[in-house]
């Protein structure tokens, strides 16, 4: 009975305006992001120039497509974002956008950002909703597809997804480093003392604590305050202030702006209808007078698929509990969990390749293989360190050494703790395999113990 | 309206917790750090005086080379060698500042790519015409090429003979002079950019610690330089990158055997940059003071003290090497290994702990972080 009630609640008709506005906003922001990305030269810098890439486990088949191929892919991505915005060939656009965007993200872990993952997730959800059937060019092309109302779930899933992002970002902040040490903001904020007005304050420790505690409170509660009609306006004002602040303080590109406009989905249908009517008055178009509800034949299937999606979304951020030791140290189960700006983690990795036949060992200059960004990301993440070890193994095999051994001496400084040895420097990583199992060659994290010793070459 | 009030109350409650927490957080920066004063110290007391001295030394080098080529003798050769070594040492003082003007002048590529390519130099000399800016000539110019041209034969008489009785003497004199002039010209151009073209002001007024900011450039270049000191000055010659097979011919200043002296000068310069010590020896506001300001710790001591001590340990380890480095890599590998290990420890501190505490971004696009 309860499930029937839930189903009828989820499928009840609601105004299509919020979904249409969200479609326009999402498509528009994506188009702007892609154009910006191309104009900054990042397509070449991140997907053409590097000599090697760090694909995800199980996605090693995802490879860059060469200069022409990558620009074509980004062109396609931009066109499909435009298609989403205009609601033109919408279903094709949404599928193409999801595939092209996700493909690019899977090429190299170096460029992993929670907000790219967010875009992929939302793009996936966009495929499933009838967002083109209201205020779109598709409706102009095929007027009979027009609807005034869509099932409630089509709007709800975006609110839920956004709510999950914020809430889990808040849960992730409930850790001792953030709450008790004000780390890493205590190190990051003083770098901005040149800013007008707030600049001088950023040097104060209490301000770092304020930001930390307010940030956690904000992330944990904002979905609820946005959802609640009476607190919505104030909550949205807080959203704007919060994201403007993060845009000023951190180099996070388009993300704050995307969040600022995406959260408008929490606003009432009346608000979105006003927005659309304003557009209509400019374009001088009218909408049909009689309401029409979008009947979706695949609805039961979609609801099951969405249930599965959200169960995964709820569970995935907790998978770190299946791994031993401190999450920040091992980063096993760190990604895809909305852990945002939690760590100042810097590493230095020295790699040694040994030829067991001669005993001769060669130290690697990482930059001979990697870009600055790749080296930085690789130096702190065990799975990337292992991948680099395998790249070295394969490269030395090509150079004629039949069974090269690869060791790394890696030091990590994390949230203000002095640098310490990260991986077992005696393990031959060439012989280790990637898997979802715990990586036994990560040394145990010890809060007090420093292990600075030059292991060097044997 | 009740909801609004509840929300406000909740926020206020949050703030109260913060204030309660504040009293515990007493170990952070207490006073504002004057980053502008630090940058001014670097520009006015280290970088500009450093380049000024370098300009003077390279001018003297060029003059001494002119005197030698005008009348080659063992006496004029000795003077040219002296000026060469003086200028090469001052280069170690300023080579870290490879951003802005130095980057424009491609100072490192023009001045100090080693090991130098003797056969390329010889073929340039006998050809009599060459383009020193051609990519192919990157290892046939600068101080390492002068090192070969001024010390390339076992005795002074033999070197002098190359500029007097040798068939290619005239062409060799011209090549030597062209190299010395190129060094002088690039040094002058860099100095002028900092002074008359006022890059110093740009540097001093640069805000924040992002990529391309003055602090970011300084920290990243200092790390790059320490890394290069370990790798190129010690690592490659001692076979660290060639399966433990020593490559003595790859040391800096191979022919004149000045490698260790230059290495020591380089490390002392890097230490001075870390500490903000001026060319006249005054300790001004530097990166170490900034680390102290954010109370960066290492192993229960101040991080700045740990880094300073590690610089000293590395410099002391140089003295453990008692013969020229090109010999020591085969005759005394233990002492070289000790030196190498101290440099490795230094890199861990400056490349891992220091940028963390400074909040310096070491990535090149703002797609970083989230």
Task: Quickly describe the structure.
Chain A has 458 residues and is α+β, with helices and mostly antiparallel strands. Chain A has helices spanning 2-11, 17-39, 42-47, 66-86, 90-107, 114-128, 137-141, 153-173, 176-180, 185-188, 205-227, 232-249, 255-262, 269-283, 299-315, 327-330, 372-378, 382-398; strands spanning 13-15, 149-151, 345-354, 361-363, 405-414, 420-421.
- N- and C-termini, Cα separation of chain A: 70 Å
Uncertain segments of chain B are 11-30, 363-368
Q: Please give the number of β-strands of chain B.
A: 2
**Residue share in helix of chain A:** 40-55%
* Largest sheet, strands/sense/barrel of chain B: 2 strands, antiparallel
- Main beta-sheet annotation of chain A: 4 strands, antiparallel
CATH topology of the largest domain in chain B: A middle domain of Talin 1
Order of helices and strands of chain A: HEHHHHHHEHHHHHHHHHEEHHEE
The quaternary state of the protein chains shown equals: heterodimer
The CATH architecture category of the largest domain in chain B equals Up-down Bundle
CATH class designation of the largest domain in chain B:
Mainly Alpha
Strand order of the largest sheet of chain A: 4-3-5-6
In helices, the fraction of residues of chain B equals 55-70%
Mean pLDDT of chain B: 89
- The average pLDDT value of chain A, as a whole number, equals 94
> Structurally, how many domains make up the residues of chain A?
2
User: Based on CA inertia axes, which overall geometry of chain B fits?
Assistant: globular
InterPro entries (chain B): Imelysin-like, Imelysin-like_IPPA, Imelysin_sf
Main location (chain B): other
Keywords (chain B): Signal
Subcellular location (chain B): Cell envelope
